[in-house]
Each structure stands twice: as structure tokens, then as C-alpha cells.
Amino acid sequence: MKKLTDWVNETKKKRENMKEKNKDPKEQNEQFNSAHSISQSLTDNLNTISKDLGGSADVIIREFELGETDQRKIGVMYTDGLADSTTVQEFVLKTLMIDIRSAHLENIDFEATTLELLEKHSLSGGQLKKVYNLKNVKQHILSGDTVLLFDGETVGLSVATKGWKQRGVEEPSSQTVVRGPKEGFTESLRTNTALIRRKIKSDNLWIEQMLIGKETQTDVAILYMKGIANDKIIKEVKKRLKKIDIDGVLESAMIEELIQDETFTLFPTLYNTERPDVAASGLLEGRIVIIVDGTPFVLLAPAVFVQFMQSSEDYYQRSDIASAIRLLRYVAFMLALLVPSAYIAVTTFHQEMLPTTLLVSLASQREGVPFPAFVEAILMEVTFEILREAGLRMPRAVGSAISIVGALVLGQAAVEAGIISNVMVIVVALTAISSFVIPSYNLGMAVRLLRFLFMLLAAAFGMYGIILGIIILVSHLTSLRSFGVPYLSPIAPSNKEGQRDSLIRLPIWALISRPRLISQKNMIRDETPAPEPNDSTKEPEKSPSGESSK
Amino acid sequence: MKKILKIIIIFSLLIMSGCWDRKELNELAILTGLAIDKEDDEYKVTAQVLNPGEIAGKAQSTRVAVSTYEATGKSVFEALRALTITSPRKLYLSHLKLVVLGEELATQGIGQSLDFLSRDHELRTDFFILISKENDASSILKILTPIDKIPTSKIFDSIESSEENWAPTKGVHLHDLIAKLSSESDNPVLTGVYVEGDIDFGGSVENVERINSPSVISLDYLGIFKEDKLVGWLNKNESKAFNYIMDNVKNTVGVEKCEGGNVTLEIYETNTEVKVVEDNGLPKITVKVESDVSIGEVRCKENILGEEKLKELAEKLDKQTREVLNEGLITAKELQTDIFGFGEQIRKQNPKLWNKVKENWNEEGFVHLDVQIESHYNIRRTGTIKESFQWKASGD
Amino acid sequence: MIGSSKEKISQKQLTSMIILFTIGSAILFIPSFLANVAKQDAWISAIVATVLGLFTVLFYSKLYKLYPKKSYFECATFILGKWIGGAVILITYIYFFILSSLILWDLGEFLKTQVLVQTPIQVILILFMLTVIYTVRLGIENVGRTSEVFLPWVLGLFLLMCVFLIWSLEKGNLLPYLEKGVMPVLHGSYYLLSFPYLELIIFLMITPYVNKETKVQKSFLQGTLVAGGLLITTTFLCILVLGADVTARNTFPVYVLGKMVSVGEFLERLEIIIAIIWFLSIYFKLAIVFYVLVASLSDFVKAKDYRPITLPLGMLLVVMSPIMFTSTMQVASFDKEVFFPLTYIVGFFLPLIVYIAGKIKHKKRGI
């Protein structure tokens, strides 16, 4: 591991060198970009902005005079497509060009500047903000607001006119449920915060926002429950987010990679979800939600291993059934991880473990297969992974063709040709199906990769290799942390309260406290008494004879 | 970066070269039966090896499902390794089901040939050990059997089922045998096996192409040992007696005479207790057999289902059992070998007494041992019908 | 305190480490050891030794309470001074070194005879040692957590094994009780007490990490009791199923026990369960001993981090183990003539001296 950190340091150094080299041109740029502050001359300002934006076709810059007599010049700028055209028309342009003429401005202090006048009396847009330098002006324009600049003023005015075509709230495609809310996050940050706010109407839900990405200027929101979330973790999340110095953030996965605790692991240490209910329940458990504008996938931190084996539906089904299904998932997890390697180990090292009849039938299938079991397994597993990847990236219409090719041509034909034994096909199929049971896609990926490692170990050392592999794997997992929270908690370090909702899920009324290591204060979340059979709603038994005769 | 490379190289060296113990399924000769004979001073080992493709494969031909290979050597281990000359693949011993020892070898002593079986790591302990009666041990493995394509597995199953339902046989595992051989107060028995019919014909496919296979493998009764040497054979009743005393009987039948025919009883639960009492410084053994039986077949003229009659029947059974057990006991005493482990029982229940009598136990103590046999039968059930239809038809 | 002082072990982790350590390599060898001397009374030996073992760990926890924030080595130098304490430490350190080579030998012996017969023993040992090195580098806290993950598996598999064996018990194998008197039984207990109970002295090197001082004694007792229960049950099962003779004759009677399982024709050939239990427990035993070895060595040379010496020391062990121990017979006699007496010295007499000296020191200060 140390070597890897060395490598990281090296790249860091390189990066710093690069920065130093780049310094000079940057300075030149800044000189070229003229002063940051807004100048007194409106025409100058508009020219500079137009120049800075390279005269981009979608940025609309208009200059006109306000009122009939009071000939004050005013500049209006917005980006076509990002700003809602009706809002711009109705609340900005129309107000400034038409309404203001008919307005009765007698009572108004004419000494006031245009800016104040407009800010206080005229503009009917919802959100107004003052802008003090050209950089901000550009930023506002490019994020969809309409910016007004005035002749003779060094302060501009930004009107919130954001509004562009966006996808509506739809059913999430990645984490589907049979029972449970069907809405999913969208690409719009505001919609997403609203979706969460609609579920948690508490004043404790705090939302902080920041811009990340030097070029993309992406909005990133941090949501947490004040008083439930651990302040240290909040601070840590903010610290790590602030450290990010990258040109662009296009997906929350990029943020995830930049703020996770450990880079050199296959396992995800931040949870991502497309479902508002999962995000909300995470918040209530004291987790911190990070929403990145432009992606429906929001991040939850800290994340622990058991979380990746849970589905939101576990809480919407009866607890006993949910527990059984969860256990089934763990079984599937192990199958997906170990079946091919166990098969290799048993058939090439420990044949004595098989009952004689099974051994004979396996051996008869292996007759004439030209490859060792290991090669056979690798061959089939790789083929399967290729098929899966192909199916994933293909348009839907072609997808079915791939499954036909996979099932018929590769599966059946390979067996009939005697290249692959039947059992191998069963083994691969079992692993494949098991790996689909894992609810989290990124954990599934980790399993996919690890499977090959285990196969290698099994091929060289049989069960001995597998067991050593498991020991290393578990040690690695226990050493992982997500924002300081041990990855395998509440299993190791064990915590009885936490285990009520980990491998199994006890009834909701028994889930009294929040996860201890994650929340660390305001622990009690549920004080509902266990339902009692002698509830008052149950009618007292009357004489049965009278009732039944009817 | 270099360090990473180093680790990768070390790891891949370890893994790539780590195939010392790998053996592919299709490189194995799965050995299910082993016969050991003694020829002069050498051991002749016969191995029965499976041909998986003929047993479970899709395209089965008419070739035989098993083949045998033979080799001789100064020890069992050597002979087994010598088999590689003739066997096409490496012999794989873990699935051994049966070891057949030749009668000649058995009379000379089996101890020496067993060491390998318990020492080798590939061998498990769940195979049965048999003695071939009359024929060579190797001939037992050369007979093809119908229904079950693997002859050894046929024998294995026969032992298990006859042990459960018939009583005069006993499947002996290796560790039982070794425990008895190494004990001074106990002597082993092994089930015999022999070929009925033409041995040479039994090895050809024709043998299993007929409905009534001309040569079949048949289990015989128990061969009894003194220390590790075969000294004699028990017949059916004596074998049964042995199993009764050893509390091995799970289910068997008994036939008892009655007026005009006989009645067959199914003994479905027996429990034997061996008690040791000290009597004038000498051990005295009480064997108490308690059985639950049900009526399996009635061929009597008269109705025997009355309470009185049943009691009579039970008493007759008791008497018969006592006789049978005595018969077995006498045979063992004649051969001067304590196969019943009475010495072991004395050691367990009264170690002090055992220390006094253990000198020459087989020849003296056991031969003069006073053994009391008690037997008690409870007739609990009458089967699915009560009174036999024969009584009404013939009685009126 | 040795190693990094930031690490914390919970009481539960200490308990599970003690359990796994105690089962360690013992579970595979002990029944045969005991049956060799005590025959069918091996299980009585096991019970006696376990009771004595409980007293031993009670003594250890008393020793711990003298200076809860100091490891055993630090205690020794603090109480006995630099020279005498140093001697105690040296002997104990050598003992730990031999112990870890023995553990490696045990592992190699088992794998080489039962599972990977053709594989060179060096490869087996290097692979195992690399695993241990990797996990020890992650810290003792991590080893503790890992033990918490694996303990339920070990216990569960063991229980499963016991359930499967119920069908093949023969209670006659236990008779007669105390055939040769009490001496053979005590002789057996003598072995079992030293291997593994007196080896638990090593935990006094780790106890300073435990986050709750008051719980250490409980952990010691609980861990020893559970592990002792497992050892007793194992011995008991071996005698009941295999009989004293077969148990004594086999090198790995428990493995044979696994081969004996046969429930309903399909649940058979379960010796792999035994192998898994054993691999896990022996891994923890070696990991703990190895951690103490590297951490106390780095402490001695006043290094900040023990990690750099894990690889060299680990490889030294891999090389030393096959050199020190060459054959099954040699190890058996080494165990009897050198190692068990040494264990009594290191695990009992030296700590006793430290304890008494410490008590006197306490009293003097008290006055």
C-alpha cells in the first residue's frame, strides 16, 4: 500500500510543478481580462463581458434606455435556454421597458439611484441579488439568471430567472422497488432538495450549498439533520469538499472519488442513491447527503458495508420477510464471490469432498474437455462479463440479440462442442444470478473483480488459498473507514443495538436508536411501544353464542 | 512503482507455480475397490477403477463401467504404486468403498496390510473391509453387476441394507477393525463375500445383459479372527447370534413353528445389554436381549392372536433366541476367540477384575466364561391386518 | 505500551481473540496428546486443565491490574529493574519466537500431510506468513475486529460439527473411568495447561489497548471458559466417536472426526469444516504472536512504527521454522522436553516473580 501512496505523492508533486509552470500565462490572462470590478461605463462593461464570453451565441446582451424622459442607460444580459424566456419577458424586459413608463413614480425619491429604485419598486422577479464584480456577473448569466447593469453604477443586479428544459420526476431506474415511493431524483439540484424537503419538513434539515469545479461551477448541496448528524463528520465532509480543486464535476461519482477515505479499495465507501426515501432515511440516521447538480445520484456519507446489502424495500415489507431476504442477499453475495473458486478448488484439489456419485457425474462431463478447470472457469466468467458489459451499453433493441447469442451460441454450443463442461455453465449461471441479487451496483462490481482473484488463489492452492483470501478480504474490510466510521460496523466493532438492523431487520418498533457510530447524539429515534395483543382497539369478547346465531 | 512490481512478481510467481497438488477430474482414475491377496511373499493388489463416461456420460457405449488393474509388490503401498504402469491415470484413493482381503491373506494375518490403509492421507475411513471366501480377493472385483453399474457400490449397498434388514452380516470400517485388533480384550469379525457362478463369465458384459445374471456377488456370513488371523466362519444363525450380542441388530426376521406351519416375526427393535458380575473372583456375564416384534407372516392353522397364545409364542421365541445365541457362543469358544468383546466389557465395567483375568484371555478366561443369556420378546403389532384370512377359509 | 498507542480494543474483541488464540493450533492436536497419556479419560484431563487454566488467567488479570497501562514487558522492567527485567523479557521473547515458529510448523505439518501433499512447505508457509504480515500491518485493533467477524463462524461451524456427530456417539468408549488412576489424567492436564492456557501470557502484551480496564478480567475468564469448553467438547467427541485408541494413534484425530460425519447419505465428507475452523483459529494465534513479536521489537529499538520490520521478521520465521523443526518425531520430543517446561517457566514462574515483586513495590509505596 505504501508504494501506492508514494505514487500519489509523486503525482501531487508533478501537479504542483505544472501549476508553477502555468502561473505566468495565468497572470497574463488576468491582465487581459481587464479589471474585476464593474466600471462606470455601461458600454465598456458590456463590451468586456461580450469579449470574455467569446461572443457566445447563446448569451444575449441588450442595451436600452429606461423611461421616456429619464434617459438612463441600462444593460440586460441573460443566457438563452438557461433563463426562462417567459420570466425574462414578463418580469424583466416588460417591466423595464413598458410598465415603468406608466408607473406613478411621483412619490418616489428621485434622488435615489436607478438601482435602488428598481430594486425596491419596480422589478417583480422573485429573487434579487446585487453583484459587485464582472466575474460574478458572468457567473450569474451563465447559471441562468438575468443581470442588469446600469450606466454610472458599479453595482449590478441579478434577477433569478433560472428555468430550462429538464427531465421530470420519474421512477428511478437503478433501484426499483415493488412497494415504496416511485419517485426518483432528477438532474436538477433544486428539485432534488425539494424532494427531500417534502419528506422531512423539520427545521432541523439544513442545506448548505457550495460551488465546485473551476470551470463547471457546479452547485453542490450538503444536507444534514442538525442535532442528529455528527458535527465532526459534517465538518470533515465540508473540509474534504472544500479541498476539491478540479476543473469540472460532472457526476457525483467524481466527488465520491475525491472525498473517499481510501482510494485503493474495490469497495465503495460512499453510498449513492437515486431514491429520495433512501436519502431521507439516511438523513434521519444522521448521515450527510451530498447532492450534485446535474446528476440524479446523490451521495450518502458515511457509508458502511451492510448498507450496500440493504434495499429501501426492506423497511416497507414485514420485518421477518425482510430479514429472510437480507440473509438471502448475503448468501448470494458469498455465492457470487466464491462459487467459481470453490468449484475449482473442489474439482482440482479436494475431490474427496464430493460424494462418489457426484464425482463420477462431474468427471464424466469433464471427459474430453481440453482445458483445466481453472482455464475453463476463467473462460466462461470472462465471456459472461463481456456479455454483460455488451448488454449494458447496447440500445435496448439490440440487447435481446445479445442474450440470444450469449445463451445459445456460447452456452449451448460450447457445451455441445465439448469445450466447456455442463457444470461450468451452471456454475457461471449461478454466480451471475447471485451477483444480480446484490442491491448495490458498485458493490456488485467489487464482487465481480474479486471473484477472479479468488479463482486464481483456488487454482493455485485450493481451499487453503480461498481461506487465506477470505482472511485478507475481511481484514481489508475491517480496516476500511468511511469518514471515520469503521466500514464493517455494526458487525466489527460489534454493537448490539446496531445489529438489530444489519444482517436482519427487527420490527420497526425495536429499532430504537440510530446507528451509534454515525449519529453519536440524539440517539433515540423510536419510542413506539411494541404493539400489544390486548390493545384497546380490540373489542372485548362478548358472549359468542349471541353473536354467532346471527 | 518498482515495489508494486516486485510484489506483483512475487505473488504471481507463488501463484503461477502453485499447481503442485492440482489434479484435474479427467486425469484421475477413481478407485472404488481394492483387493489384496497374498502370493507367496508378495502382495497382489487389484484395483477397480471407474470409467466415468460409461456411468454418467451422455454417450454411453457398451464398454464396461469399471476396469481392474493388478500389480504385485513387497508391500501394499509398493504394489499400489506399481499399478501406475498399467493404469492410464493416477489412482485416486479417496473414494474407496471396499477393501477385499483374500482368505489366504486373512488366515496368515491381516495386520500388516492394514497399516497403509490407515496411514495414507488420501484414504478416508468410510470404506468397508471384507474377506473373500473361497475365491481370490481379486476375483470379487472382476464381476460385473446389473442395476448398479459399479460393482463395489453394489456390494457396499448390499452390506448396508442387509445389515439393516437381515442381521447376519456386519459392515466393518477400518477404524473399528483397528481398534479391535489393537485391543487385547477384543477380536474382530469381517463379513465374507464370494462369487456365485462362473467367475470368468462374470467379468464380461454378457453377465449383465441377461435378466438372471449367471454370476453374482454374494455376501456370506462372518469370518472370525483371533487377533489378526482368520480362524473360522460363522454360519447364518451364529452370525445372527453375534450381531444380537453386539447389539448390532436393527431389523431382522425370526421364524417360529406353530400348528400346521409357521409364523414369521419381524423384529424391529432390539436392545442388548451386557452386564458383568464378579462371582468368586471370576467374571460372570449376563446378556439381556429385549426385542419388540410384530407379526409379519402367519401360516398357522389356528388363531394365534389370543393373548395367551401370543405369550406362548413369545416364550418360544425367547427359547429359540437363547439357543441361537448359545450356538454362536459355543462356536466362538471352540475357536478360542472372544469376538463378542466380553473381555472389553469386563475391562470397561470392572477394570480390576480384568487385570486379574486378562492373561491368556482368549484361550482360558473366555473359554470358561460363564455367560447367562436372557431374552424377552414383546409382540407389539400384527401388521396391517388382524386375523388371518386363512383361518376363516380353512377353519369353518 | 507497545506499537501504536492510538489503537483501541474493545472487551468483546479481546474475548474473541482469546477464544481463537486458545483454540488456535491446540484443537487439532490436543485430543491426540491427551489420549496418548490419559486414554479414555482424556476428557477429564481436559476439564482439569481448563479449571487450572481459569485460575491461571485469573492470575494474569491480577498481574494486569497492577499496572493496567503497561504491557507485561514494561511491567517487568519497571518492577524488576533493567537487568533482571531484561532477562525476563529476553526469555519471554525467545519463547514467543519459538512459539510462532511452532505455530508455523503445526500449520505446515497439517497441510503437508493432509491437504497439499506435493506443494513445497516453503510456499505454504510464505503464503500464510504474507497473509499474517498484511493483516498485522493493519494494526492490532484490526486483528481484533477481524476476530469479531470470524468468531461466530468458528463457533457456528463447531456447533454444526457437534450436531452432525451426535449420531455416531458411543458412550461405551468412555469406560472405564480412571482405569490407571489419577496420574495419567494429571499428566494429560500438564500438557494441556501449558498448551494452550499458559500461552495466554502473551495477552498481557495486548491488554493495555483495551478500552475498559475493568473488563479485562471478565474477558480473560470468558474467553478461556468458552475456548476450554470447545477443547473439552472436542476431546470428548473424539473419545466418544473414535475411541481412545484411534484418537491417540492419529496425528489429527479431529480431522478424522470430520471424515466420520455421515448424516442421511448427503451430509458427509465434512472434514473441510474442521479445516476451516482450524485455519481461522491458527491464523489468529499466529497474527497475535507475530504482532507482539514485531511490536515489542520495534519498541525495543525505539522505532516509531513497527510496520517496516514485519516483512523481514516474517520471512525470518518462515526460514527458521523448517530449520528448527525438521520432523514430526523431533517436534514431539521437543515439545515434551523443552517447550512444555519452558512454557511453565515463561507462563507461570516468571510472571509470578514479576507479580510478587510488583506487590511488594506497591506495599512499600502504600506505606
What does this protein look like?
Chain B: This is Ger(X)C family spore germination protein. Chain B: Keywords: Germination, Lipoprotein, Membrane, Palmitate, Signal. Chain B: Pfam families: Spore_GerAC, Spore_GerAC_N. Chain B: Belongs to the GerABKC lipoprotein family. Chain B: It comes from Aquibacillus halophilus. Chain A: Its main location: membrane. The complex is a heterotrimer of chains A (550), B (396) and C (367). Chain A has helices spanning 2-32, 42-52, 85-102, 114-122, 134-142, 189-199, 231-243, 252-259, 276-284, 305-308, 319-348, 356-366, 373-393, 396-416, 422-437, 441-461, 463-479, 496-499, 516-519, 544-549; strands at residues 59-66, 72-79, 128-131, 146-150, 156-159, 205-212, 218-225, 271-273, 288-292, 298-301, 481-482, 485-486. Chain A has 550 residues and is an alpha+beta fold. Among the domains of chain A are: 42-105 and 113-159, no CATH class; 189-303, no CATH class; 326-479, no CATH class. A 5-stranded antiparallel sheet of chain A has the order 1-2-4-5-3, sandwiched between helices. A 5-stranded antiparallel sheet of chain A has the order 6-7-9-10-8, sandwiched between helices. In chain A, α6 (189-199) packs across α9 (276-284), α11 (319-348) packs parallel to α16 (441-461) and α13 (373-393) crosses α15 (422-437). The model of chain A is unreliable at 25-35 and 546-550 (pLDDT under 50). With 396 residues, chain B is of the alpha/beta class. Chain B folds into 2 domains: 26-233, no CATH class; 236-396, Nutrient germinant receptor protein C, domain 3 (GMP Synthetase, Chain A, domain 3). Chain B is 36% helix and 30% strand. In chain B, strands 1, 2, 3, 4, 5, 6, 7, 8 and 9 form a 9-stranded mixed sheet that branches. A 4-stranded mixed sheet of chain B has the order 10-11-12-13, sandwiched between helices. The N and C termini of chain B lie far apart (105 Å). Chain C is mostly helical. Chain C has a single domain, classed as Amino acid/polyamine transporter I (Up-down Bundle). Chain C contains 12 helices and 2 strands. The model of chain C has no long low-confidence stretch (mean pLDDT 89). Chains in contact: A-B, A-C, B-C. At the A-B interface, α1, α12 and α16 of A face α1, β1 and α2 of B.
